[in-house]
Structure formats: C-alpha cells, structure tokens
Known about the structure:
Elements: E1 2-9, H1 17-28, E2 35-46, E3 53-62, E4 84-88, H2 92-103, E5 107-111, H3 117-130, H4 164-173, H5 193-206, E6 210-212, E7 215-223, E8 226-234, E9 242-246, E10 249-251, H6 258-266, E11 271-273, E12 276-285, H7 286-294, E13 312-315, E14 318-326, E15 330-333, E16 343-346, E17 355-364, H8 376-391, E18 398-402, H9 403-408, E19 424-426, H10 429-432, H11 435-451, E20 461-466, E21 473-475, E22 490-492, H12 503-522
Parallel strand pairs: 4-5, 4-10, 5-6, 10-22, 18-19
Antiparallel strand pairs: 1-3, 2-3, 7-8, 8-9, 11-21, 12-17, 12-20, 13-14, 14-17, 15-16, 18-20
Helix pairs in contact: 2-5, 2-12
Amino acid sequence: MIKEFQLRVLPQQAVNESALKDYLVHEQGLDSRDITHVRVLKRSIDARQRTIFVNLKVRVFINEQPTDDDYQPTFYPDVSGKPSVIVVGAGPGGLFAALRLIELGFRPIVVERGKNVHDRKKDLALITKTQQVDGESNYCFGEGGAGAYSDGKLYTRSKKRGNIEKILNVFCQHGASTNILADAHPHIGTDRLPRVIENMRNTIVKSGGEVHFQTRMTRLIIERNTVVGIEAESLITSRSSLLSFSGPVILATGHSARDVYRYLHGNGIELEAKGLAVGVRLEHPSQLIDQIQYHNKQGRGKYLPAAEYSFVTQVEGRGVYSFCMCPGGFVIPAATGPQQIVVNGMSPASRGTAWSNSGMVVEIRPEDIEGDGPLKMMEYQEQLERDCWQQGNMQQTAPAQRMADFVNGRLSYDLPRSSYAPGLISSPLHFWLPQSVGHRLQEGFRKFGKMSHGFLTNEACLIAVETRTSSPVRILRDHETLQHVRLQGLFPCGEGAGYAGGIVSAGVDGERCAEMAATYLKS
C-alpha cells in the first residue's frame, strides 16, 4: 500500500527518514513495523513566524518496497551517422539542447570557446593569484557556462515555458542529489555541479555526439539567407587552425559573449537592446541573516539550513530587488576580460561558509540610457565595469563600502572580513555609482531595513559591481519556430539570446530549440 501525506512539522522532525517515521507513527497512527520507506516529494520552510515549520509532501510505502525510481531517467540512443546540428556554447542551454537532440535522433556537435570544467577551475584560481582574467576561461566562459562555478541554483519562476521537472530529472540522472526534485528552492552546489556537467558531456560523446573545447566560433556560414554551418578557430596553441562544421546552428553563447553580439550586429543580423539590472553584491555574516530570518538569536540551530531572503520594492518607477541569493556562500570575480570588475555569488552544497550574499540591483530599461542601437545596454554595462576597475586600483581588487555608510553617504574607513578572495578596497560607492542606481539602492535599503530589523547594518558590505544579471541584448527570433527572424537554420538560444534567466530556464529553452531544429531538418 502507498499513502501520501501533507505534513507540517518542526525542523527536528523533518531532519531524516527515521525522524519522519517516528512522526508518522505518533501523529498518523501508522505501525512502525509496516513502514518500509518514506520518500519526500516536496519540501519547503515556513519561517514567517517565530516557530519555524517545514512543509512536506511525503509518500509512505507500507508493507511493500518502492518500485518507482527516485527520478525519471531519459534514454539516449546512439546517433552516430545521424544528421548533425551545431550547438555553439556548452552552458546549460547548449548542454540541454545537445541532450535533447540525441533523444530526437540527431547528432549534436558542441563547440565551446572555453576549457573543460576541470581545466577551467585552474584558471579561476589564477584570478586571485595573478589579478588577471583569461578572456576565454573564466567564471562565465567554459564548460557549464556561468552557472558551473557560480552556484547551481535551480529555482525558476518560468513555469510556463517548458518541462522543468524534466530538467531536474536529467540533472539527477547525471549525478545531482534527488533532493532537488523535492526542495522548493533546489540547489546543486558549486562543489558538486562540475561532476554533473562532466557526466552530461560524457553522455553526449557516448551517444555519438562531439564536444570541441577551446574552439571559438568566428562566423556563421550563410547561403541564400540560410545558416548552413559555422567557421571556428581552435584556441589550442599546438593545434591553431580554422575549422568548419556543417548543419543548422543553435546559438547558446551566454550573456557575456560580447564579441558574438558585435559580430551579429556588424553582419546585419537583427538584434534589439534589452532591459537588465545592475547594482552590487551585498554580503552579510551568515549568522546574522540566520538570526534575522529565523527570529532567533541562536541562528539556524542544528536542523535548519542557512537562511535565504528575498526583497523587492519600487523606487522612482524602477524595481530594486535582491537577485541570486547565496546563503553560506562566496562572492567571486566574474569578469571576462581586461579592464573589468564584475562580481557574482556562489554557494557550495553545504552552504556552510561564514557569509551570505546576494545581488542587490536596480532595473534599467533601454529608454533610461541615451543613444540608439541594439548594443547600447551592453555598452552601458561595459562602461560601468571599467569605472569599477579604475576604482579598484585597476586590478581585480573590488571597490566596497559598509552598508549603512553607503546609505548615509559616508566613507568607510575600514571594511568587514569578506569572502571575496582577490581583496577589497574601501571606496565611496555612493559617490561614483550612477545616480540612478546609487540613489535607488539607498532608498531600497532603507525600505528593506524597515521590513527586516537588523538587515541594514554596517556589519554588511557592498561589493561593486554586479552587472551580468541577464543579457543586455535580445537576438530576435520567430515566436513559433524559434529561428532568427531573417535567417533560416539559426536558433538563438537561452540566456545569451535574451530568452532565459538562469540554469533551469536556459535548459528548458535549449530543449525547445533542439525540438525546433529537429523539425526544421525534417521539413
């Protein structure tokens, strides 16, 4: 017999299967000898009141062993010799496009400018040691894309775009914890996601697909208004050469591939400027956030995870909000080239560091920025990152200011201890940030401090500058076919094309583009 229950329990009652069995025996009248397994289907924390509860949906197996898998696996056939589709970019959009192509009987050829996920890690470490950024291998470029080493959060509000459960199940099939199927805000963790990504790549290769690292697309091959392939350059010194690949193209280059945007614009491929959000990374001691969110001076205690928060308000007609909250995490240097400082956040699976951070950003619309042309929002990003680099001693040392000092327009004569490894330098962010951003952040922080007592504090630190919240450009595509509005055979995909906002939504869009590319080849 199988029964399902909706439970509202204390954290210590939800900590493991044994504790849940005890609760079911005492509160639901079940016999402990009859319970063979308890599976958590959904899990969320309700911290609105002083007493914290965990809301659970559980499936209880009574006098029988579970017969269904913890996740739903996908079958990937051998596609050797099948028609090819080129996938440019091995971030979540590209990887899920490649896997879906295999399901549909097509052979993906993945072309990625960066390194594989393990070699890439060495270049990330060098950013702190040398204060230099490798323009082809960094926190945004390389296998896994921007998400691989910046958290692996899987929460999305894009519920109508596609099969989110499918995306989570594919992650589980490739090594992610099945907890992500149950948690309200699923999270793999920066320390575990690289192994999952490598397993996904192995599935692509084992099924007959190809993956080419350190291979940068240089141009689209266009014949009679149809994309029929790409030319690419090998970036491996010993193999430096020009390559060509034939087939329709899924373009999933990520939100930081500015050279791709310039190439497309320069060759008359239709783009439009897209709104984005810019601001800072706000870092608190994680214990303080735990105390505030869990209404307890002792913080999270033994049974609760590092606390999350979410804030949103309006200031002078523009949204001000928290973004990509990383409880128990780090602030990281996310620049992709010289003369840039960009910060982002990440968390290990344990979420166990001494800090919690989030982006705190202000909505910027195209009409807010002077000038014309589809690249003006990207150019605004670039200028802000250059300004930040100059304030940071023209290295990866990031300008920073204590939170209350920023709100009150005061200099910070010292800074709190921080997770940002390249180091911080005290800087008057309130003075040099664009007034439309700085003033709105100040007002937003005042509102958030009233919503959550203790949040607005000089124990917290603002680290500049957070600019890569989303793509500043949208590559125009047809609503039905997902092809570029002017070119057949080109499928702009994922966050870089302006159609997704995070790992899961990029994965969903990758699958949709794969389906449309398959339909295109069959027509």
